Amino acid sequence: MTAGLPGTGIGGLFYVASALAMPLREAYRRVTRRGPRTRWRIVAGQAGLGVAIVAAMWGAGWLLGLALHAARPLGTIGGVPASNVLRTATLALTVGMLAAVLGGVEVLRACLVWSARRRRSTVMLLAFGVAMAAGHAAAAQSTISGQVAGSRDSDGNVMFRLGTTVDLAASSTTRFGLTASHAGVKDGVGAAGLDEVVLRGTWRPRKGSSVDATAGFVRAAARLAPSGQVRVRWRASADGNGLALDLRARRGILDGTPQLVANRVARSELGGVLNVPLVGALRIRGIGRAAVLQDSLESNWRTLLGGAVVLAVLPGGEVSGQYTELRHAHASTAGYFAPRLVQVVQAGSYVEVETARALTLALDVGAGVGRVAAQGAPLGPWRPALRGYALILLPLAGRTQLSLEVEAEDSPGAGEAATSPSWRYLSTALSLRWPLP
């Protein structure tokens, strides 16, 4: 907020935003034939008052800027033009805090349908997140980012996602944040949407090791469900050449197709990747994941086991040979592909390059073969299995950063949204991150 200017705080901006939104809401009510016409007098009065407050705030800031400019000591260097003391960045920060408070209130309201024990835990979690956000809003290295993403698969499912994240630096090793996103998916016949709000936390005690956690709610099919993730990454040496472990636990609603969203198929998964050095640049990699896919009618176990031989060939680069097996306990009618067994053999390569201007390029590609066995059936023929991922991080002015991600896969059992052995998909994501004032 701006000290000394009424109306620029959270309460004042909330009133102004509500007053200016009243004509839009009343117009909608009139189109849908709701409410009497006499309400327009109240609406016009409140909207006019909101406009007057905005004009008064701008005028007060302009006059104060003139006064401060005229009161400069005679010894100062002249030629500096007067400016409005009402800073846009300051108002943006206040609006962001207001949005965080309103979002927290809505999540708390949704929590009323939960049991008392879960309600208390959720309230404590949100209160902690809001307190950290308020206490560290002005900390260095704090950022806000927006993301737009989309994907399309061979079955005609199209997804579009919008999201924003406020990331606050509590210290040099600890960060907290809040993420809100909306996703919509359609297949030409039906459509579905998801809304998610999560609190985020990151702790990086040293280079190469970190703990990332998220906790929140996702709204799908007009109902709330918990979502979250915990990821622990550890390296024995900071250069990444020693023993390394990556563990992840996550829970969320599958959103690849409208049917998955309508059936509220939830995935609860625990997985890990272990890298063990052997001789020189040669190491082996073990991969394991176990998940429960659950909807209102059934639960299905999904397991993945794999191994790879990896050879580091360049700083930031490697080549590998990998074998994985994917299994499901039984078939499913919830909308995802659940074969008895999927076997994939691939050769892969990964490279990451950072230029002198902090431009980062990363590329991960793989090519091989795979085969599928349906439930109660033998393994089918081998067919091509391809995958690719690319990341570009482009620094802009100041600490602003633009990132672009592209991912594609044509492989048996590529994901939970697959409906056949020949399923393919392509996804892209574009995000912009800039520092908070």
List keywords for this structure.
single chain, alpha+beta, 16-stranded antiparallel beta barrel, 2 domains, about 25% helix, globular, Porin, about 425 residues
In words, what does this structure look like?
This protein is of the alpha+beta class and 437 residues long. It folds into two domains: 10-69 and 87-133, no CATH class; 136-435, Porin. The chain is built from five helices and 16 strands. The protein has helices spanning 10-31, 39-70, 88-110, 116-135, 258-262; strands at 143-153, 158-169, 174-186, 191-206, 209-220, 223-235, 244-253, 266-277, 282-294, 299-314, 317-328, 341-354, 360-373, 383-395, 401-410, 424-435. It has a 16-stranded antiparallel β-barrel with strand order 1-2-3-4-5-6-7-8-9-10-11-12-13-14-15-16. Strand 5 (209-220) and strand 6 form a beta hairpin. Helix 1 runs antiparallel to helix 2 (39-70), helix 1 (10-31) packs across helix 3 and helix 3 packs antiparallel against helix 4 (116-135). It is globular. Residues 74-80, 113-124 and 127-140 have low confidence and may be disordered.
Reconstruct the topology from this structure.
Blueprint: H1 10-31, H2 39-70, H3 88-110, H4 116-135, E1 143-153, E2 158-169, E3 174-186, E4 191-206, E5 209-220, E6 223-235, E7 244-253, H5 258-262, E8 266-277, E9 282-294, E10 299-314, E11 317-328, E12 341-354, E13 360-373, E14 383-395, E15 401-410, E16 424-435
Antiparallel strand pairs: 1-2, 1-16, 2-3, 3-4, 4-5, 5-6, 6-7, 7-8, 8-9, 9-10, 10-11, 11-12, 12-13, 13-14, 14-15, 15-16
Helix pairs in contact: 1-2, 1-3, 3-4
